[in-house]
Amino acid sequence: GEVFLVSDEDWRDVLSLVPATVWTEGADVKKYPTMIYHQEGSCVDAGPILDFLEEFYQASMITIVTRNPSNVPGDLLAELNKLSYKPRIVYENPDGIIDEYWESYSDIVIVGYSNYREALLASSYASLINSPIIFLSSSNYNSPSNANKLTGKDAVVIGTLDAGIRSFLSSNTRSVEYLSIEQLQDRYVQLTGTNKIILVNSLDTGFRFRDSYDFPVGAGQDATPHLDTEYSCRLFDILNKQSLASPILAASSRPTVSDPP
């Protein structure tokens, strides 16, 4: 099967993958494993990824989602090449996800470009209705690429958008529906019948851990973190962006996602 790897550097890249890698076929939820890696400069802890690929899921293809393959850490690629089997490694530009993974679609979920809190649940909802998700700002909403994705579609907007974007959607989509987070939570519960909830902190994208973990460079899948200066690969922000994984879990098991006030 296929496995997706994506950096947490841009949360939009991660969340745009959710409906592409987890979708519904009748009563069944289909999914490809998606792993989010944290990178600071050239440093990345590849151990958990390699453990999963070696011990739990031997992938035939690994798709690395990135706009620039040269930015993928060399250590990560080196360790992937040490797997006991030889999966095919390919690269996918996140801007091309909709064109690559949807032959056709009638609905599209829209979130403001900076609205991370709304995007967490919106991406799970997009997965539920088998719809792509797109993030619009005042500078990108009328680009030829986005216009093509939106024209003639039924748009579901989660949260708020600038007036110019709202006007554009009214003129170019087949229909537009605006939902608040609370309204979307109610709809999600109604559609799934879930009695479960995932609590997240959507402010964790700005959290910074005030110490550092050092990793032996190229140590392989058995590498363990050390607080030691002899290692040259150092990660500082290891505890942030944990909420990014919640939509993948929610899409796979169908609880709703909530960010407590």
Report on this model:
Helix 3 links the parallel strand 7 and strand 8. The protein has a 4-stranded parallel β-sheet with strand order 4-1-7-8, covered by helices on one side. It has a 4-stranded parallel β-sheet with strand order 10-9-11-12, sandwiched between helices. Strands 2-3 form a two-stranded antiparallel ribbon. The longest helix has 13 residues. The chain is globular and about 50 Å long. It is built from 9 helices and 16 strands. The N and C termini lie far apart (39 Å). About 6% of the residues have low confidence. The protein has 261 residues and is α/β, with parallel strands linked by helices. Helix content is 31%, strand content 25%.
**If you compute it from the alpha carbons, what radius of gyration comes out, rounded to the nearest whole angstrom?**
19 Å
Distance, first to last CA: 39 Å
State the share of residues found in helices, binned by percent.
25-40%
Shape field = globular
